Amino acid sequence: MTTANHSQVTGFVLLGFSQVWELRLFFFIVFSVVYLMTVTGNLLIVAVVTSDPRLHTTMYFLLGNLSFLDFCYSSIMAPRMLADLLSRKPVISFGGCLTQLFFFHFIGGIKIFLLTVMVYDRYVAISQPLRYMLIMNRTVCGLLVAASWVGGFIHSIAQVGLTAQLPFCGPDKLDNFYCDVPQLIKLACTDTFVLELLMVSNNGLVTLMCFLVLLGSYTALLVMLRSHSREGRSKALSTCASHIAVVTLIFVPCLYIYARPFRTFPMDKVVSVLYTMVTPMLNPAIYTLRNKEVIIAMKKLWRRQKDLLDPLEH
């Protein structure tokens, strides 16, 4: 189909979760609480890692970066989604849709690459403890994080570049609560089979390869820990367990959405909510509840803020 006899779509109607007002209000309250907890938890970790000199290490630098990315990731769509839940007809412009798509995959791509860097950091720490500070120095760590940002940008700009060239001449109803590739390209008035293959290759295969590399790395780490002392093994296992939990929460939903043909399934929106809203909220809890150093640093930050406020109250 060509666009010769059709007008170009200038915006999309986001169908969201439900058209029933009572359900929309319920979702608004629930997701408002989730978003508030996400922002508070992730920014708290960033503040703690930044303020405590004892946490100025490679591992916590990467953890602080992940928390900042989780804050950005949830903020890309949550405020807009909350506003749309209270709107009678939520519409997003074509430019706004592409902008949301770009930042969603930009931050998401950085997170995937950063998690790969984090497992490499743990691998070096466990396999080369005496040379760890030499191998993972600040310069190397900074370069790896910068490479993650570059990788995320390349991944995202490819998504937007391919999608922006498609003709959209109707329908204009997007069956989601945010703009994403699987639903968006289905609205194009042209054959998108080849484009779907490219998108699955860019999204699904890259995610799958990173996931397999991470699984292989964690398997090698667990085997390596058998030769460590009980105390060292317990501490390393605690850190690895946190990483594995976060990796599972991020990669499994992404593989479900992107590593398959772009068809609509009943669980799609539930899985989308899981990795866009729930996972960024859970990540701080997963890391902080299992990490004594972070908990101690949080208590110190709390006492410091309390000491600063006490003179003002008197």
TrEMBL record:
Gene expressing this chain: OR4D5
InterPro entries in the cross-refs: GPCR_Rhodpsn, GPCR_Rhodpsn_7TM, Olfact_rcpt, Olfactory_Receptors
Localization (cell): Membrane
Transmembrane segments: 25-48, 60-82, 102-120, 140-158, 205-225, 237-258, 270-289
GO molecular function: G protein-coupled receptor activity; olfactory receptor activity
Segments forming domain G-protein coupled receptors family 1 profile: 41-287
Organism: Bos taurus
Membrane topology qualifier: Multi-pass membrane protein
This protein's GO CC annotations: plasma membrane
Cited PROSITE patterns: G_PROTEIN_RECEP_F1_2
GO terms (BP aspect): detection of chemical stimulus involved in sensory perception of smell
Summary of the function given for this chain in its UniProt record: Putative odorant or sperm cell receptor.
Protein name per Swiss-Prot or TrEMBL: Olfactory receptor family 4 subfamily D member 5
SUPFAM superfamilies hit by this protein: Family A G protein-coupled receptor-like
Keywords noted in UniProt: G-protein coupled receptor, Membrane, Olfaction, Receptor, Sensory transduction, Transducer, Transmembrane, Transmembrane helix
Domain of life from the UniProt record: Eukaryota
Lineage start: Eukaryota, Metazoa, Chordata, Craniata, Vertebrata
Any matching Pfam family: 7tm_4
